[in-house]
Fold this sequence. Notes:
Elements: H1 8-20, H2 29-40, E1 46-51, E2 55-61, E3 64-74, H3 101-117, E4 123-131, H4 139-145, E5 156-167, E6 171-173, E7 176-179, E8 182-190, E9 194-195, H5 205-222, E10 230-239, E11 245-246, E12 249-258, H6 261-282, E13 285-294, E14 297-299, H7 301-315, E15 320-322, H8 332-338, E16 341-349, H9 368-381
Parallel strand pairs: 3-4, 3-5, 5-16, 6-15
Antiparallel strand pairs: 1-2, 2-4, 6-16, 7-14, 8-12, 8-13, 9-11, 10-12
Helix pairs in contact: 1-3, 3-9, 5-6, 7-9
Amino acid sequence: MTTTAIPHDELVATRRRLHAAPELSMVERETAAFVAEELGALGLDEVRTGIGLTGVLGTLRGGKPGPVTLLRADMDALPITELNDVPYRSQRAGVMHACGHDGHVSILLAAVKTLVARRAEVPGTLVFCFQPGEEGHAGAKKMIDDGALENPHVDRTFALHLFSGLEVGKIGVRDGAFFASADEFDLTIRGKGGHGAMPQLAVDPVAAGAYVVTLLQTIVSRETAPKDPAVVTVGQFVSGTTFNVIPDEAKMKGTVRAFDAEVRRSMPERMRRIIDGLSSALRFEYEFDYHWSYPPTVNAREINDVVRAVGAREIGAGNVVEHDIVMWAEDMSFMQEERPGAYFVVGSRGGDASAYPHHNARFDIDERALEVGYRMMVALGCEG
């Protein structure tokens, strides 16, 4: 089957239109309206809007028996000021598609157009999921709560992510846990302020916080098996007002990541034990809040094998690589907890301009990657 019905120029034009008009998580109203308008003109069996606040679902009943398959693209951008000097740069101050979601929407919209035209070849039913709020707002879970996996009852899911860490023309797959969990914590250390020259009369929350940061690293280095990758990062440490004053308190925020479910569950208890011991030793009081967020993204082997087979056929077996784990997190994990699914990466690095990491103000893609993603999504939609 030929899968190149949508011209590459159309893929690029859609991606650039979206790139120039990015919207933050859960306020993707213009993007969602554009998607809904495009879907509404295609003759789908159903288009649902407002799913998970700004999500859009399209349903296509195929011409052959088969499973109900969900194909997903996330729509949101990031609070970053773009530094790229390109004709399609963001026209919204402080907002940028710095993670490739503009490309994801372009890919899936083009795939929908092709799959509608080839309805007779589609096995079962396809659900096209345009999701809001992937960047920390659990938009996938919000869509699940609004019934995205029912009516029709989804049997399996597929999702992709453009990835500057992989060469354009290739896709990366991995069985089991591919992306990490991502949980968050807040810690307030309360000491006793005083003069910087008389620390004996104070309880220094800055010194205490420094010990906390250091000792939290021992959870990974000394309490977690080397075979179980994990991260404990303090990303924010705020305290004090000037050079010669010991402040009353220090505040920290951070992220905790893991691939193993048991390691993930153990983290807050381990952290609290260290903080509690230090509070006794260093005489401070504290408040510690742990926020469960995204679970690990775990791929089902049998669904991943579909991606491998389709990839070998569409782009060549040599371009389907077994990829290492990636420490970022993905809220598609919530859908893959409910239904077996496969999440794979599509290489978007084609030179220096497309080699910047995700969430960088100079992030961009080699737009040849759009064609690869499009061909994969069309072929997956036609795979029983």
